[in-house]
Design a protein that fits this description.
This is VOC family protein. The chain is of the alpha/beta class. Helices cover 20% and strands 31% of the residues. The protein is built from 3 helices and 8 strands. The protein is globular.
Length: 127
């Protein structure tokens, strides 16, 4: 039986760790978590915020995920979008999902990310 998503892994090119840290820690406000030594030798970095865990793994034949993406729930979506924009990250609003405010952005290596917040009065998601 599935109980939860443990983490989402995105790919990144070799040598991009400092740019990833600037985006995921500084812009998104996540905390970098240490990787086990055997995995740290492969490069990349891991981040978390509350129950959200994102792993960025080095892929030598890297191509950014432009369609596939994690959907990240946020609170105070307007302020969160402003925070990302203030850090130079792109913010593209999309009103096509009923009952939600959402926007897309991308990390410094081109991976797509979706940020969404349920609109006031929208029904809770089914479980």
């Amino acid at each position: 039986m599935l109980t939860a998503v443990d983490h989402v892994q995105l790919a990144a090119p070799p040598g991009s760790e400092e740019r990833l840290r600037a985006y995921y820690a500084d812009s998104l406000g996540m905390t970098e978590t240490p990787k086990p030594p055997a995995l740290a030798a492969r490069g990349g970095c891991w981040f978390e915020a509350g129950d959200v865990r994102l792993h960025l793994g080095v892929e030598h034949d890297f191509r950014p995920a432009r369609k596939a993406h994690p959907g990240l729930r946020v609170t105070g979506i307007e302020a969160y979008a402003a925070r990302l924009a203030a850090h130079g990250a792109p913010v593209t609003w999309d009103d096509d999902l009923p009952g939600h405010r959402r926007f897309h952005s991308e990390d410094p290596v081109g991976n797509r990310l979706e940020f969404l917040e349920r609109s006031a009065g929208a029904p809770a998601p089914r479980r």
